[in-house]
């Protein structure tokens, strides 16, 4: 008795179940199976056709056989197709209830199902945080993938969530945030959907990002995650700058402990960042600091301008940075004093030259000491110049008023440290107590520093012999 005819789709549905029906396939699956049936039928037709062709070829093969009955050698060799190795499956280990808390090196033994090198890496992350001064350091491991990924939190002394990745045989902290993950970041490290929670696609970053107060401080590598709205390469640059500052501070602390009690206080504060490729902020060394402008030059971020006073407008112009980008006014070139010229006057000018630029000479210009006036330039406390002096027919001294500065930013009120930093090639005269800075042959800056360690007088003076001023 023949078996009853069964629907092929029903047979496939029940295959391997001992005849017990399983869930029916959806219509799309049925269509796919129908397509497979048609493909198999077409294949069978192809096989039948191949057999017919083979039958037609057999006589030709027999004719090619030698008299001894042996077949002629084959004209080519058949290379066997290797069986592909199965792709190893990825194992994901999830640790519930907030993850495995690593509060001591031995706690890494609790990371059951993870690799030994991952456990060693997590132990190192904990140890680094602990050694940096966080005695309550804690690493919470929430998920692990044998594909070379881990997700968890770094805490104990402030915290953030992190994704760890195995790259080129080495585990490292690939991503960190105190916010929700950015989807593009996860995609960059091939983090599967849902592995580390939800992610979002942020709106395009604003052209300029401003950080309030004194700016966003970056004291250690993980703080760079707080520079929201800046670029990854800028964050990496700031991280490298902080590492350099710490190294310099440690050297200072080693030679002069009183000057730098805690090298970890060295930090960078970012006040404003522009997507166009420049930023402004401040750098705290140990124990001093300065304001800085950073710019991306030829694809690399660099510290291009530093000052302990106002930024000069000329510096901003040189690096194509809008004046409005800097908080407060930049130091206008019209307020520049020296090094060679000062508001049309110059050391060594003759009587004719002084009058030619609008100066009026009071006293005997050929005598020991005469003075020069010029409307809105010299002669009033509100003018750029306090005084222009002449001896024997030549200008020998030009004094600056308050509010005017050398190109290096030195003016009335600058500190002694500022002066020495701006002019390390200068020297203090033991006779007059001024800081003397060579400008060119025959002239120099003379910077008077009061008992309060601040500049009280600034002038350009001849270095030759004259009897008006010392």
Automatic annotation (TrEMBL):
The keyword Transmembrane helix applies. The keyword Transmembrane helix applies. The chain crosses the membrane at residues 44-64. Residues 1-20, 67-89 are annotated as: Disordered. Keywords: Membrane, Transmembrane, Transmembrane helix. This is Uncharacterized protein. It comes from Nocardioides marmorisolisilvae.
């Amino acid at each position: 008795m023949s078996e009853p005819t069964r629907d092929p789709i029903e047979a496939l549905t029940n295959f391997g179940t001992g005849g017990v029906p399983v869930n029916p396939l959806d219509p799309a699956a049925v269509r796919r199976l129908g397509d497979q049936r048609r493909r198999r039928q077409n294949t069978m037709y192809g096989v039948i056709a191949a057999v017919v062709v083979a039958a037609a070829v057999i006589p030709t093969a027999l004719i090619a056989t030698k008299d001894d009955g042996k077949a002629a050698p084959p004209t080519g060799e058949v290379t066997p197709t290797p069986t592909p190795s199965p792709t190893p499956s990825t194992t994901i280990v999830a640790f519930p209830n907030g993850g495995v808390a690593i509060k001591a090196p031995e706690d890494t033994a609790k990371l059951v199902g993870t690799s030994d090198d991952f456990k060693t890496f997590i132990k190192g992350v904990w140890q680094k945080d602990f050694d940096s001064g966080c005695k309550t350091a804690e690493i919470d491991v929430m998920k692990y993938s044998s594909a070379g990924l881990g997700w968890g939190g770094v805490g104990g002394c402030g915290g953030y969530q992190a994704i760890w990745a195995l790259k080129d045989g080495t585990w490292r902290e690939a991503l960190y945030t105190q916010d929700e993950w950015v989807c593009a970041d996860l995609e960059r490290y091939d983090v599967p959907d849902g592995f580390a929670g939800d992610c979002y696609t942020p709106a395009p970053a604003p052209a300029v990002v401003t950080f309030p107060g004194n700016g966003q401080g970056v004291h250690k590598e993980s703080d760079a995650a707080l520079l929201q709205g800046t670029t990854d390469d800028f964050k990496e640059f700031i991280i490298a700058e902080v590492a350099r500052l710490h190294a310099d501070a440690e050297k200072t602390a080693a030679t002069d402990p009183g000057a730098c009690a805690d090298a970890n206080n060295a930090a960078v504060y970012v006040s404003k960042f522009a997507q166009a490729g420049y930023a402004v902020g401040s750098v705290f060394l140990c124990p001093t600091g300065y304001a800085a402008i950073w710019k991306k030059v030829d694809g690399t971020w660099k510290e291009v301008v530093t000052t302990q006073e106002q930024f000069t407008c000329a510096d901003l112009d040189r690096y194509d940075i809008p004046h409005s980008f800097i908080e407060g006014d930049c130091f206008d070139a019209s307020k520049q004093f020296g090094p060679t010229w000062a508001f049309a006057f110059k050391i060594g000018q003759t009587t004719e030259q002084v009058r030619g630029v609008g100066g009026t000479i009071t006293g005997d210009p050929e005598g020991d000491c005469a003075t020069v006036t010029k409307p809105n330039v010299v002669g009033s406390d509100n003018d750029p110049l306090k005084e222009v002096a002449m001896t024997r027919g030549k200008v020998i001294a030009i004094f600056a008023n308050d509010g005017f500065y050398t190109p290096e930013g030195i003016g009335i009120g600058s500190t002694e440290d500022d002066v020495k930093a701006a002019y390390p090639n200068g020297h203090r005269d033991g006779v007059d107590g001024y800081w003397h800075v060579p400008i060119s042959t025959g002239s120099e800056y003379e910077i008077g520093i009061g008992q309060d360690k601040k500049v009280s007088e600034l002038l350009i003076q001849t270095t030759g012999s004259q009897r008006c001023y010392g």
